[in-house]
Design a protein that fits this description.
alpha/beta, 17-stranded parallel β-sheet, nine-stranded parallel β-sheet, 36 strands, 34% helix
């Protein structure tokens, strides 16, 4: 028991001794490569084998005035580390064996020169927090475990086609243009609280991010965050993000694939903030109305999403959302189809119909049709709501039948609707009534028969408006041209019949769903 305790107690001492030896070896190797070393460089080399962070600042408070990265040019040698020394430490085979598995950790340092890790394979995580790296970082084709630049101020970061097994953290710092073109990030891309500057502040074009891409807590930029063709395994989340400036800014995610939710919540926008989701794909969408970009700055054609995780979900709000698209593409049917599909899947059937009708209205408004086609679409809309509201035709039918009943009753009483058979006509002239054997006139039945196609109720065959009929001489004329009422009624009869042959088939076609463009 005593022997075991002595062995256990000896382990920390042995580990500490091994770390001291490794630190001394690293210092010796570094002096051989770089000559004299600054106090900050020595501190980094001595901490590297231990897994602890080398704090080169007199204060470990990142927000202390002494750690103001904007004033890093005034930091002396005690806080200055050469970028080439860091690159050597990470790339040299002999030095790399002496690093702690938890990685290289430096805080509060000014790193001079460009940190060039291009094409290198780095076997440990790299953390440069609360640092100033004014000349930036090059990572093209590098293989890293993870990269943390939390609270740092950096020049441009070029990570094109890099492969990073874990997370990339660009949180709460100030970063010049960052590019991860065709890079692979095995964890999350975190940019919450970061301030990104430059013409193209953050480009993640055609990259793969297996975790989340997070832009929270006053993430700020005055340019375009470019995720075109990117593949994101989980969520792409903008929450409490701020877009500034007079130039174009916002999110460009054309043809991006988002496995989880696209969040666009509590966004501060400018008149030039864009949200381009053309041909993108997301598992779901969560946004809010106040974060929508201004009219003309929202692109949704080809955007596919399964549901609304949060935010407005009613048809009225979402149609207003679609109207934020540029006028040139508001006639595109896909955004309406997609919205209707989502609403239908959520059980909002009436809302889905409203969206489908709005789509057809947009096509009618923005597509260039000939006069005949335009009139036909207007008729479809007015009569059956483009096939989505077929029962609307019943009101037209009832209206025409009621109007016809009124006009035909008046025509009969005015003796301008007369029998079609000669003997019945003569009797009608003399007595004002048809013979007893003759089918009596019924204005409702007459209106129905002439309106409904292929319906014979034995009225239209026996009665017709007769412009040549003269009323009895003992009745005073009410018009100078006594044939005008009959001619007018006959013209209406033709309209009545044509309306019936148009509206009735549209009713049945709408009920059968033959005219829908689902």
């Amino acid at each position: 028991m005593i022997l075991t305790a002595l062995i256990v107690d000896a382990r920390p001492a042995r580990a500490h001794h091994e770390q001291d030896v490794a630190a001394a070896t690293l210092e010796q190797l570094a002096r051989g490569e770089f000559g004299a070393l600054s106090a900050a460089e020595l501190q980094m080399l001595r901490a590297a084998p231990t897994g602890e962070a080398a704090w080169t600042s007199p204060s470990d408070d990142p927000d202390a005035p002494v750690n103001d990265r904007a004033q890093a040019a005034g930091w002396g040698p005690e806080r200055t580390i050469r970028a080439e020394l860091i690159a050597w430490l990470l790339a040299d085979a002999q030095a790399g064996k002496l690093l702690h598995p938890s990685g290289l950790k430096v805080r509060g340092a000014r790193i001079t020169g460009k940190l060039d890790l291009s094409y290198l394979t780095v076997g440990v995580p790299v953390m440069l927090a609360v640092c100033a790296i004014p000349d930036g970082i090059d990572l093209p084709y590098a293989h890293l475990q993870s990269l943390e630049l939390r609270r740092s101020w950096t020049g441009p970061i070029n990570g094109d086609q890099a492969i990073i097994a874990g997370d990339v953290s660009l949180n709460y710092g100030h970063y010049d243009e960052v590019s991860f073109y065709r890079a692979e990030i095995g964890g999350d891309l975190e940019a919450s609280g970061g301030d990104f500057v430059g013409v193209q502040p953050l480009a993640v074009i055609d990259a793969t991010i297996k975790g989340d891409a997070l832009f929270h807590e006053h993430f700020t930029t005055g340019g375009i965050v470019d995720f075109r063709l990117a593949r994101i395994g989980k969520s792409l989340s903008f929450h409490d993000a701020i877009f500034t400036g007079k130039q174009d800014n916002g999110l460009r995610a054309e043809r991006a694939t988002i496995g989880g939710t696209l969040y666009w919540v509590d966004i501060t926008t400018t008149p030039n903030t864009q949200l381009d989701l053309e041909d993108a794909r997301a598992g779901s969408l969560w946004d809010d109305e106040k974060s929508w970009p201004a009219a003309g700055n929202l692109a949704l054609d080809g955007f596919v999403y399964d549901d609304f995780s949060g935010g407005p979900a009613d048809s009225t709000s979402r149609l207003a959302w679609l109207r934020r698209q540029p006028l040139a593409i508001q006639g595109q049917p896909q955004p309406y189809h997609q919205l209707a599909q989502v609403m239908r899947a959520s059980g909002q059937l009436d809302g889905a119909v409203e969206v489908e009708v709005a789509r057809e209205d947009a096509i009618t408004r923005f597509e260039k049709f000939g006069l005949a086609h335009s009139l036909w679409r207007l008729a479809l809309d007015g009569i059956i709501g483009y096939g989505y509201r077929p029962l609307r035709a019943l009101w037209w039918i009832l209206g025409f039948v009621a109007l016809g009943t009124t006009l035909f009753r008046w025509g009969y009483r005015a003796r301008v609707i007369t029998p079609t058979e000669e003997r019945a006509y003569e009797s009608f002239i003399k007595t004002g009534e048809p013979p007893p054997h003759y089918p009596p006139f019924n204005s409702l039945v007459y209106s129905l028969e002439n309106f409904l196609p292929v319906v014979d109720l034995h009225q239209g065959e026996y009665w017709r408006p007769n412009p040549l009929h003269r009323r009895a001489r003992d009745r005073p004329a009410r018009w100078t041209d006594e044939t005008f009422p009959a001619r007018l009624l006959r013209w209406y009869l033709w309209v009545h019949i044509l309306a019936g042959w148009t509206i009735t088939p549209l009713l049945f076609a709408g009920l059968a769903g033959l005219l829908r463009n689902d």
